Amino acid sequence: MTTLEPNPRGWMVLSIAAPDAPPADAMVAAGDSASLDSGTEWPAYPVADQRSHERPVNQPVVVRARAVPSEFGPANIAERAWLRAAALHPNAMIAVSSADGGVGRSTLVAALGDLLALAVPGPVVAIDMHPVPWGGLGERIGRSNAGTMWDAVRDLHTLTSRHEVERWTQRSPSGLLALVGETEGQGRRPPRHDEAAAVVEALRRIYPLTICDVMPALVTGVWRTLAAAYAPVLAARATTDSLHHTMRLLTHLRAAGNGAVVDRAVLAVIATSPATDRTVRAVLRQVATVVPDVVSIPYDPQLARPEPVDARRLKKQTRTALVQLADAVIGRCADSRVALPIAARKERA
């Protein structure tokens, strides 16, 4: 049974119950609410310390989603993404990598994460896993304190609550939390990939969604991170060279026994100029036969500048592309029963 409940305070409430399941209102009262800033975990999504990645088939799903901000559309895709964002699997993780460097990976993590921070009814955290001094994610999120991944690795044994983690995080304009990387001249070494992976595992236990900014997929450690993610995302520039490199990476992943990564992959193609060459469009059609979802991110001067990203302030075409990317990505992280067409018109903030 699927019911759309009234949406007090601008929330969308969708109850999806399997046959013979107890009524949804026995699980969650429609009027229950609390400030998101209070740290209350909504019953709308599974608690993060559950170990199973699947729910029993007869367990009802009560989705209490945030209202879609008016900046984002198309409405049907945005509303579906926002509903899915309220029904994440426990320990949900997105990993963003690429076939080579310099493709705008950290920018994509910041922009996508910024949007998802508006959609998920709970804090979303991004993690810079680069083992070299770079600081790209820090530039895109903004810095309000000196905390970095170095602090998180050093204090790994204490990262058992959000309070302990958020001593070291930065916050984007839309509320995305981030453990940023090191920059040159700070006297701190960036974490090794295995050290960063241990931080990721700790944070997956206490946050509803974790987004990893991973180095190019040139080593097996990165391949393992992509395999562990519900949604492996590959970023590429809208150039023939970058797309061909991505195709070769996909071939290598499948040949090495990581076909499941290819089958779940989402490819984000980031434009480098307002116009796309016809040869690039031809390669894109070829890539679309290999990857389930390919999303083109149009050229946006705001994404080209090394400054904090606010997804709400991007060009309309860029916001639309990010919604499509978020829909593809979050669909891999959410309970499949939430991927239902929503016929009713819902309130938009």
UniProtKB/TrEMBL annotation:
Name the InterPro entries for this protein.
Answer: P-loop_NTPase, ParA/MinD_ATPase
So which domain of life are we looking at?
Bacteria
Supply the PANTHER family for this chain.
Answer: ESX-1 SECRETION-ASSOCIATED PROTEIN ESPI (PTHR43384:SF14), SEPTUM SITE-DETERMINING PROTEIN MIND HOMOLOG, CHLOROPLASTIC-RELATED (PTHR43384)
Name of this chain's protein:
CobQ/CobB/MinD/ParA nucleotide binding domain-containing protein
- Lineage start: Bacteria, Bacillati, Actinomycetota, Actinomycetes, Micromonosporales
